[in-house]
Amino acid sequence: MDTKPIRIEAKIDAGVLFSFMLRHTYTTFSGLFTIVLGLGAFGLFVQSLSGNNDSQKLILLIIAILFTVGNPYLLYKKAKEQAKRNPLYKEALIYTLDDAGVHLTVDGNEETLEWTRIKKWKKTGKVCILYTSKVHAILLPYKDMKNQKNAVEALIQSKLK
């Protein structure tokens, strides 16, 4: 089946990186453990409000804030710094998706990633993630797909059965 190539001119910014980092971090065991720890500390804080131990209340509140607000904040700072520092993200990345795979063009140089090298795909509200390993991925921002989102997802779905 010959699929019409889909061209995406992607600009990877801090918001896209943050969305990816949140999903990547909080779907691992350690990420889920962090959420449970933060919510548990908050629950214990609420329960301790009727008690007299002010230092315990303060410690539980600090732990709850660190794990539920602090970690995402640090991820956002990291995403912002990475978006600013990485020279690839300063210019638009041209992705072309077709039957052969995903083609990336940067500064006139093209690299092709065959569909067989993509291990899995996931979605967030802002980005379609094509994992090539546990820690490496291609990020396709939905904002840059314009009206091609359904076609992109259908092609990916058909190639990664």
SSE run:
EHHHEEEEEEH
- How many DSSP H or I helices? 4
| N- to C-terminal distance | 15 Å
What oligomeric state do the depicted chains represent? single chain
What fraction of residues sit in β-strands?
15-25%
Helix content, binned percent: 40-55%
* Low-confidence residue ranges: none
Q: What structural class results from the helix and strand content?
A: alpha+beta
Structural write-up:
- The protein is an alpha+beta fold and 161 residues long.
- It has 4 helices and 7 strands; from the N terminus they run βαααββββββα.
- The chain has helices at 14-26, 29-48, 54-85, 149-159, and strands at 6-10, 93-98, 101-106, 109-114, 120-123, 127-131, 137-141.
- A 4-stranded antiparallel beta sheet has the order 1-2-3-4, covered by helices on one side.
- A hairpin with a 2-residue loop joins strand 3 (101-106) and strand 4.
- It is elongated and about 70 Å long.
- The two termini are 15 Å apart.
Offer a concise description of the structure.
The chain has 161 residues and is of the alpha+beta class.
Output the keywords.
single chain; 161 residues; alpha+beta; four-stranded antiparallel sheet; three-stranded antiparallel sheet; 4 helices; 47% helix; 23% strand; elongated
Secondary structure elements and their pairing?
Elements lengths: L5 E5 L3 H13 L2 H20 L5 H32 L7 E6 L2 E6 L2 E6 L5 E4 L3 E5 L5 E5 L7 H11 L2
Helix pairs in contact: 1-3, 2-3
